[in-house]
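Re: that backbone. Tokens:
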């Protein structure tokens, strides 16, 4: 009987969706007619183990003028539950981006990206993204994650 209770509890935990809240910090650049380069801060939420809604805010310069970028994407995570430190996670996203520069009107863009992250099932790891959002956009940095209590690292 104790074995049956253990099996039921393990199955119940496995059926719960892997939710997480994430905070990221890094650098971003968008190369187009004028190049943006700056620091980026992001916040994201995983409503399930396979998806993430991410907001990235960046401040920097375009043509030596202060500039800002914002990007909101819905991302599909390929192997988000990978717990091993040696297994990278891959993801793709689509959404919208906005860029503004002092002395110029702001512009909106369609955002499409591909990304890779180190150990997506761990509390923290690196990430890198490449995509299109008003030019070719690249970003890299460090991501911290908060998982529900039932999720244990192995």
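Recovered sequence:
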């Amino acid at each position: 009987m104790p074995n049956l209770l253990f099996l039921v509890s393990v199955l119940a935990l496995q059926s719960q969706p892997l939710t997480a809240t994430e905070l990221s910090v890094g650098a971003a650049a968008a190369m187009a007619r004028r190049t943006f380069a700056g620091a980026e801060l992001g916040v994201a939420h995983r409503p399930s183990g396979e998806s993430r809604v991410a907001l990235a805010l960046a401040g920097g310069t375009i043509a030596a003028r202060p500039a800002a970028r914002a990007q909101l994407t819905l991302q599909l995570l390929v192997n988000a539950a990978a717990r091993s430190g040696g297994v990278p996670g891959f993801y793709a996203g689509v959404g919208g981006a906005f860029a503004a520069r002092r002395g110029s009107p702001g512009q909106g863009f369609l955002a499409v990206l591909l990304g890779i992250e180190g150990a997506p099932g761990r509390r923290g790891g690196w990430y890198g993204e490449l995509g299109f959002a008003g030019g070719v956009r690249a970003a890299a940095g460090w991501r911290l994650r908060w998982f529900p209590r039932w999720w244990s690292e192995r």
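Residues 2-15 form the longest helix (14 residues). The chain has a mean pLDDT of 85.
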